[in-house]
């Protein structure tokens, strides 16, 4: 899976994941909790290409565990360039049940689910924005998927 280099240095679990084969990249928009504006490191693209050519890659298009955050265009650029089969995965309940790092339980009564969807029919010639919109919709991270609690009248 693709993860931020700084994240993979924070704690024992990320270090283990890093050791067993994660693709660590430098974020182009954030570093150590602060906004940055730097170009994509070509070595990071080479690492992703190597991973795609030697198996499969998991990426988190939002670059964070915070729900309903706008997806990062880098995911769409990876798809346009390498033309992989894209299988959307919806993870529900994780953020409500666990802390930000996913190590400590916050609540026990949360229903957790992981749904693997059918492969997307991606137009690899489409714009990065169109591909990103398709992905975000498929992983149920658009405004249309926000669950607004219904008021129950007595």
Instruction: Please identify the structural class as seen in this structure.
Output: alpha+beta
Q: Please bin the fraction of helical residues.
A: 25-40%
Describe the global form: globular
Q: SSE string, helix = H, strand = E?
A: EHEEEHHEHEH
Q: For the report, how would you describe the main beta sheet?
A: 2 strands, parallel
Termini separation: 48 Å
Radius of gyration: 17 Å
Structure summary, number of beta strands = 6
Which percent band covers the strand fraction?
5-15%
- What are the segments in which pLDDT stays under 50 over at least 5 consecutive residues? none
Spatial sequence of strands, sheet with the most strands: 1-2
- Arithmetic mean of pLDDT: 79
Describe this structure in words.
With about 150 residues, this protein is of the alpha+beta class. The protein has helices spanning about 10-20, 40-55, 75-80, 95, 130-140, and strands at about 1-5, 25, 30, 35, 90, 115. It has a two-stranded parallel ribbon with strand order 1-2. A two-stranded antiparallel ribbon has the order 3-4. Strands 5-6 form a two-stranded antiparallel sheet. Helix 3 packs across helix 5.
């Amino acid at each position: 899976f693709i993860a931020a280099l700084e994240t993979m240095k924070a704690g024992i679990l990320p270090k283990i994941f890093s050791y067993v084969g994660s693709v660590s990249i430098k974020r182009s928009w954030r570093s150590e909790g602060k906004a940055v504006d730097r170009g994509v490191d070509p070595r990071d693209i080479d690492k992703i290409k190597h991973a795609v050519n030697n198996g499969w890659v998991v990426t988190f298009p939002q670059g964070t565990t915070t729900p309903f955050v706008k997806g990062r265009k880098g995911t769409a650029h990876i798809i346009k360039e390498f033309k992989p089969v894209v299988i959307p995965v919806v993870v529900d309940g994780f953020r409500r049940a666990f802390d930000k790092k996913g190590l400590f339980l916050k609540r026990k009564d949360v229903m957790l689910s992981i749904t693997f969807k059918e492969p997307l029919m991606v137009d690899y010639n489409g714009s990065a924005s169109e591909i990103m919109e398709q992905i975000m919709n498929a992983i149920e991270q658009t405004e249309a998927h926000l669950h607004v609690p219904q008021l129950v009248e007595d």
